[in-house]
């Protein structure tokens, strides 16, 4: 009888040790997982902090700083904490310059007719104007303002097709942004993909042209 009780007691002790070992291992694995995730977040944060918030040059292209005056209609200074996509727009004002479209955003603080802005505007001569720092949101992409960088592109006519100079600067800027923010070319989206708005018009009506743009960005990043 005593021998039987001893065996039962031994089995119970072994079972308790096994449960304790499993529990301890599970806790350690959980803590390790949390540590890894926390480490990744810290690495991403450190990487984000190293990305310049205002640009002076992209490739061999100068970026002109024309930051908007802080105001609630076009530059609310709301932090942009995470970038998941870059959104391409067209101005819908044929023949207008990058500076003219930037000034439209600036004047919204005075006329207060709507809320609108963009991080960058690319002009007909390929000039790149930065309107919003990269650590602030712009008012461009509806409910995706909180996690996207926006680029407005000028165009010469009603078709909305970008000319060669605008297109080449767009490819260079998209390539830089994808590299810095560790994005894939599939993370380059149209305003249309966010809200259904026909923007950028030519690249909504011509899906092949849109896919070619992303291919050109991929090729540019391989240089």
From TrEMBL:
Stored CDD domains: PGRP
One GO molecular function term? Answer: N-acetylmuramoyl-L-alanine amidase activity
- Transmembrane stretches, by residue range? 21-40
Q: Which UniProt keywords apply?
A: Cell wall biogenesis/degradation, Hydrolase, Membrane, Transmembrane, Transmembrane helix
**Which organism's genome codes for this protein?**
Anaerocolumna aminovalerica
GO BP field = cell wall organization; peptidoglycan catabolic process; peptidoglycan turnover
Return the EC number.
3.5.1.28
Q: Domain (N-acetylmuramoyl-L-alanine amidase): give its ranges.
A: 73-218
Name this polypeptide is given: N-acetylmuramoyl-L-alanine amidase
Which reaction is recorded as catalysed by this protein? Hydrolyzes the link between N-acetylmuramoyl residues and L-amino acid residues in certain cell-wall glycopeptides
Which SUPFAM superfamilies does the record cross-reference, listed alphabetically?
N-acetylmuramoyl-L-alanine amidase-like
